[in-house]
Amino acid sequence: MSQNIQSVRGMNDILPGEAEFWDVFEETVRSWLKSYGYRPIRLPIVEPTPLFKRAIGEVTDIVEKEMYSFVDSLNGEQLTLRPEGTAGCVRALIQNKLAAQHPQRLYYLGPMFRHERPQKGRYRQFNQVGVESFGFPGPDIDAEQILMGARLWDDLGLEGIRLQLNTLGQAEERASHRAELIAHLEKNADILDEEARRRLYTNPLRILDSKNPLMQEMLAAAPVLFDHLGSASLAHFEGVQQVLRDAGLAYEINRRLVRGLDYYNLTVFEWVTDRLGAQGTVCAGGRYDGLVEQLGGKSTPACGFAMGVERLVALIRDSGGEPALGGIDVYLVHQGEVAARLAPRVAEGLRDRGIDVLFHCGGGSFKSQMKKADVSGANFAVIIGDDEANDGQVTLKPLRASGELQNEQKRVGVDNIADEIMNSFLDGEEA
Ligand code: HAM
User: Fold this and answer.
1) Long-range Cβ pairs for the range 196-203 (8 Å, 24+)
2) Residue 1's pLDDT is what?
3) pLDDT, average across residues 44-48
């Protein structure tokens, strides 16, 4: 017996019922992005593997163990399903010389791929909305991007999403901190776990992010990067906070927030909620002024963030949000040869007037068709039999009107159906 083929673990179907929430979410997001002047960019899902190694960093979870990388057997190219969008966006910026024109505010949305252990809120194919700006060196854009987040949570009706903020300073500042940090970790070598030992000389900053309870006390006593920051970095951080304070936006400074990708400097931030269990970060990002140059472009300041769509849609559903997409207006029932010829024209005529029509396909008795009309959620049935069709008429039956209106069906000339339907919608609104 043949076995049914299942989807790849951690890669999910989004079925009707849930997919409507995604549509509403995407509509809200697009109009929110437009209101801040961000423009869409559409990027490939597959990129050359070296792009991610160089951008995200060789000693990161993503590059070390989470990338879907493969050799294209047709031409030997080393390719990777994108684990995130920033690297590809920067590649596109350089390749198409966008930054030379003027500063850019860009956004993309779509699937990303990471071979992580699937659990609630963590998938192997997941979707991000990514927001990137290029050519703005000051803290104003960092702050704007943070305020954007706050507005979106509001637009989506979400509460309880907290902002965590930190600064990673500049490379020289991190280097001086790194030397002290390594010395501290070496002194405590006996309590370092295996991962920490592996990262001791390659990426010690990431050790600070460890959740291992046995290392927490030692990590709390570790030298902090903040003490190594010079006046320019401090001023930038203060500049961001000033705008947030002026806007009345609450935030928490989390000195251990280091992010899982290597390209960041100065401002980093995460939006977190307690309502999603372990995977509570719904949105994260920061400044990455070195990345454009590192990938071969002209030095260009940059700042951005990305949010996890699955996590936000879960929050929206959890908050009792309903997709505001309208149901269907008309279910079109028809039986007989003449009716079958007229029915498609009637349906198209209604759609010309902006009325949504679910056209009955597959025949069947009037009774069985009407049952389908009842469960379709449509507001009206338009019923066409050969008698009606021969007279150039249809029967219009309200399906959702309450009380005495329920059965009030009437015959209407083919040219008047749309007007009748529009008028009854208007009457309904007035009532
Ligand atoms: P990230 O923190 O790796 O940053 O991912 C951003 C968001 O994507 C996370 O906060 C989370 O909501 C969602 N996410 C990540 N991995 C998964 C997963 N396996 N399943 C479900 N959701 C997930 C970036 O990707 C950066 N490119 C953000 C950025 C843009 N920084 C500057 N510009």
Assistant:
1) 199/59, 202/58, 202/59, 203/57, 203/59, 203/60, 203/262
2) 63
3) 98
Is 307 a pocket residue for ligand 1 (Cβ < 6 Å)?
A: yes
DSSP H helical ranges for 128-262: 139-155, 171-187, 194-199, 204-207, 216-220, 231-246
The reply to whether ligand 1 has any atom less than 6 angstroms from the CB of 82 is: no
Given a contact cutoff of 8 angstroms between Cβ atoms, the answer to whether 105 and 37 are in contact is yes
| Helix runs in 336-385, H state only | 337-352, 366-375
Query: Averaged over 322-337, what is the pLDDT?
Result: 83
Q: Whose CA is nearest to atom 23 of ligand 1?
A: 308
The mean pLDDT of 383-390, rounded to a whole number, is: 95
Element (H, E) at 302: strand 302-308
Whether 426 shows a pLDDT value over 90: the answer reads: no
* Backbone φ and ψ of 68, nearest 5°: -85, 90
| 287 C-beta closer than 6 A to ligand 1 | no
396-404, Cβ contacts within 8 angstroms, sequence gap of 24 or more: 396/420, 396/421, 398/424, 399/331, 399/373, 399/374, 401/428
pLDDT for the residue numbered 429: 57
β-pair type (380-385, 330-335): parallel
Cross-strand pairs, 384:
334
CA of 103 to the centre of ligand 1 (A): 24
| C-alpha to C-alpha distance for 258 and 264, rounded to whole angstroms | 9
Can you tell me the distance from the alpha carbon of 61 to that of 290, in angstroms, rounded to the nearest whole number?
21
Q: Tokens in use for 371? A: 């049952």
**CA–CA gap between residue 42 and residue 176 (Å, rounded):** 39
Phi-psi category of 47—alpha, beta or left, where left has phi over 0 and alpha has psi -120 to 50? beta
Would strands 330-335 and 357-359 be described as parallel, antiparallel, or unpaired?
Answer: parallel
Q: Please state the pTM of the whole predicted model.
A: 0.90
Q: What share of the chain is helix, strand, coil (3-state, %, to 5)?
A: 40, 20, 35
Residue 323 burial class via C-beta count within 10 angstroms: exposed 0-12, middle 13-18, buried 19 and up: middle
